[in-house]
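seq:
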Amino acid sequence: MELKTITFSKNSAVAKNARQIYESNFPESERTPWNDFFVGEFVGATKTAYLLDGRVVGLAIYFKENDLIYLIWLAVDKAMQHQGIGSKILQTLHKENASCGIALNIENPEKPNASDKDVRKKRENFYVKNGFHPSGIVFDCFNEEWTPVCLGQVDIKRYMQIESTFYPDTHNIRKIKK
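struct:
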């Protein structure tokens, strides 16, 4: 499977399809409004669509700062999920940025009393299967517990500084108790 990557802007040909994928994959309460990705602090974010046979099948929105990729959003068209596309997107992103570590946040799969524990665990397993490792910390933001997962070398303190810049509600950063 060969994915074609296209960096897109707000009014590019693939943006409409990328937006549909984004909005169908994340609940409104967790989404950054689409137009915000093209103004303010998100202007510097790379917005990449991934195409298979000319069709947009996924997207990644991330910041690159020196040797760190801060992956904000990764989504695959729901009709194309469970076909290896998400893994291929991560492989492509890592290959194109081989000297960088990659980090992103997932909902804490160990959160006590989480109603969606199975979904959280599946998400964690997906990233672990793709070479990511748990960061060993958890934090609160937007009334949720999050934990970063990392691929390659990631300075987690620097990552959390970046996280706090984009999401000032980030607080209560703590080590995960084993």
